[in-house]
Amino acid sequence: MKSKASAPGKIILFGEHFVVYGVKAILCAIDKRVTVSAEKIPQNKISIKSSFGNIVESPDRPIKEIESQFRPFYYLADKMIQKYKEKFGIEITITSEIPSGVGLGSSSACCVASAAAISGLFTKNSKEEILQMAIEAEKTIFPNNSGADSTVCTYGGLIQYDKKGGFSKIDTEINFDLIIANSKIKHSTKEVVSYVKNFKENNEERFAIICNEVNRLVEDVLICIKNNDLEGIGRNMTKNQKYLESIGVSNEKLREMIALSNKSSFGAKLTGAGDGGCIFSLADKNNLQKTVNNLEEKNYECFTGKIDFTGLDTF
Ligand code: PMV
Known about the structure:
Layout (H helix, E strand, L loop, with lengths): L1 E13 L10 E17 L4 E5 L2 E5 L13 H13 L5 E8 L9 H14 L7 H12 L9 H8 L2 E5 L3 E4 L7 E6 L6 H14 L1 H23 L3 H17 L5 H11 L4 E5 L6 E6 L4 H10 L4 E4 L7 E2 L1
Parallel strand pairs: 3-5
Antiparallel strand pairs: 1-2, 1-12, 2-5, 2-6, 3-4, 6-7, 8-10, 8-11, 9-10
Helix pairs in contact: 1-2, 1-3, 2-3, 2-4, 3-4, 5-6, 6-7, 8-9
(3R)-3-hydroxy-3-methyl-5-(phosphonooxy)pentanoic acid binds next to α4 and α5.
């Protein structure tokens, strides 16, 4: 028996980094997916096959001894094998349309789809239960993760998220086009988050002021979303980018890509941890192609996307 699931990637529309300190963030699932298939195998092994490599390990090994990029999937498979006292093993195959390590939620989407596919071999779980498993699994590589990415990968659409209040879906039928451009500079979320922590500790007062401003900005964005005001959202993206610049998580390449996008789109900013990774711009059918051309003329690779309203899908 095979159990299959897929989950979308994401972008952080607003509030990355500040969300770690309690500010509200807005996230959006995108129509690029990870698909995971899980199957019981006769050998008592956990086998993981993916574009980032393959491993075959015995169950019941300490998680720290597993190569880090495979840990969440090993963790999920092992947990099920132990829970159900399974004599068989599990083979997991991961395929992805989402570039990894560039802030598009590929790791969270992999965890969500894996949690659904692997647990689906044993029992039926609600989205809420799968989300909890995925967050636990992702903590094996990123213990302080806020859970925001896994949440949007599970439920799809647009969500608002803050550490205290948790997530809530933004009820909207807003329709926009995204142009996502990859700087091809891989970043470590852990390192950039720790850099920001340091920045905050050395600039407590300034950081608190910026957090307040981002909070206000996000509230304004929620009104813009309600009013289908793409220009308003774009203006706030430009503002949010300025705050990210001021805490030092942008760089020359991202700034150039953002400036090119700003020639025609409603707005552009980095997404995710920054210091590399991706930027995205907001457009509709009238300025989409022009924005793609602006980036491609300067040899920046980009792809277009839309909101994914499905979230986790099992089949
Ligand atoms: O680059 P990503 O997708 O890992 O996003 C990180 C988002 C941060 O706000 C910087 C960290 C977090 O846990 O929310």
